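User: Can you help me understand a structure? I only have the sequence.
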Amino acid sequence: MRRILGLDVGEKRIGVAVSDALGITAQGLETIKQKDALAEIKSLIKQYDVEKIIIGMPLNMNGSKGERARFTDDFLVLLKKETDIETLTVDERLTTAQGERILLEADLSRKKRKRSIDKIAAQLILQTYLDSHVQENRTG
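Assistant: Let's start by predicting it. Here is the structure, written out as tokens:
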């Protein structure tokens, strides 16, 4: 069964998560460096037989697009051109803060939190999409 890839796009790093085969749960995979991003993502697409990519859109609290959202838009255009895979965005407001809380509750050191936050944010972004998609399938 094909899977869905979730990305938390940052200027230096990209957190990556992947769905389970049934499209119910998201698992954090890794954090990749921005400079290696396209090659790494293409490799993950093949490895996990990815059919769709979900990218977190970092909107401002009022819903407008700021500099980070425009950076994400640029990455999205490049990714669509390079992979030809359906790519969607989901509102990622507060996912990094939510991920930070999860890691604090897990009592991880600052160094370990820094290494894990992007991957956790990608997992939360993908899980948000999966939860809404499962809900749509039940009601629609």
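Now, to help you interpret it: The CA atoms of residues 21 and 47 lie 13 Å apart. The domain at 3-139 is CATH 3.30.420.140 (Nucleotidyltransferase; domain 5). Let me know which part you'd like to focus on.
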